[in-house]
Fold each of these.
Amino acid sequence: MNVVLLGPPGAGKGTQAERVAKSCGFPHISTGDMLRDAVAKGTELGKLAKGYMEKGELVPDEVIIGIVKERLLEPDAEKGFILDGFPRTLEQAIALENELSALGRKIDFAVNIEVSDEEVVRRISGRRICRSCGRPYHVEFNPPKADGICDVCGGELYRRADDEPEAVRRRLEVYHAQTAPLVDFYGQRGLLVGVDGARPVEEVSSEIENLLNCRKE
Ligand code: ADP
Ligand code: AMP
């Protein structure tokens, strides 16, 4: 099963992708996590991406498309994947379609997690991320068991640089201008499924797992 998760920044894509990937047995592929990892390691990609990310701008299409193409060729993605944060532009969506088609594959579902801008701001302002595994938490809605420490790997939790109000405003503008049109793109192909994201994490996951016909653990 090849799945794309759509939705504004802060909709809960990373939260849902991690849970659903586990119950469905597919890898969770997050371009945001891949870029943050590259920034933390100071690689060439990280140096290039850092400035765009901090300002809430998109990293150039050709860069991100190249990374995703490589990632999709790794053995764990053969049986399926959940893409989180990609595609974000029409150019990326078309490149993904072409790449999969060349491999004799296609997207099965584009799941759009629907959340208002107001809720996005509430979620992002309390978001904390694990420095080692990237898992997202929320200080109020989804807190870790021990303050400041990841439940899964014990890593330190931190606030993303692009979760500051100015970058969040810009990310929402970029989302509405460049990424929201993908809802129509996948709608026209009959692949779109809308999910109300303004509900508890478990309810949203159950709906997606039922849609994908995956068993919970
Ligand atoms: P995205 O990957 O779409 O940017 P995240 O998964 O990082 O979004 O979620 C954004 C923030 O909202 C995080 O702090 C997360 O813990 C919290 N969150 C995610 N889903 C829900 C939900 N259904 N209800 C309340 N808070 C949520
Ligand atoms: P995310 O973790 O998905 O919120 O992504 C964080 C940031 O990484 C974005 O604001 C962009 O700067 C960059 N990024 C992640 N995915 C993409 C993508 N598909 N295209 C361009 N930039 C991306």
Note: The mean pLDDT is 96.
Amino acid sequence: MERTLVLVKPDGVQRGLIGEVIARFERRGLRLVAAKFMQVSKELAETHYAEHKGKVFYDGLITYIVSGPVMAMVWEGPKGIEAVRQTVGSTKPVEAAPGTIRHDFALEVGRNLIHASDKPETAEKEVALWFKKDELVEWKRAVDAWVFEK
Ligand code: DAT
Ligand code: MG
């Protein structure tokens, strides 16, 4: 079972797409572990996007992510990191596969609606950065045996 960080970015929140994003992950069978609606501080934004510091799009990226509230969530499932990235789609919306969130709701890389951790090391770091341990909910669903093989 893998956990991954998902953010509905400010454009997704402003456009009323929080529910749409949650519905897609729920339908896929992923299990919600944590969620909070919050205004991102500049400090948190800079820590979260530290790997992109110095790139041409960095300043725009920080301005974008702090431009309004985000919906931060942790989702889990077997191969959860990969599964969530697949449902999210490629970074550039015009390169994202039809049926993915970025394809279906976005056009521009600087307004690509959603963040998802890209690999296990990143996911672990990002979940710990955005959520305290006691905000992560351990629970089981009656339907789990029909979604998770083991
Ligand atoms: P992802 O969000 O798919 O993990 P990333 O980690 O490479 O993509 O980049 C983080 C964000 O930075 C991305 O969601 C949008 C922005 N970004 C990435 N590449 C960009 C580019 N070439 N031009 C403008 N913004 C870019
Ligand atoms: Mg990334």
Note: The radius of gyration is 15 Å.
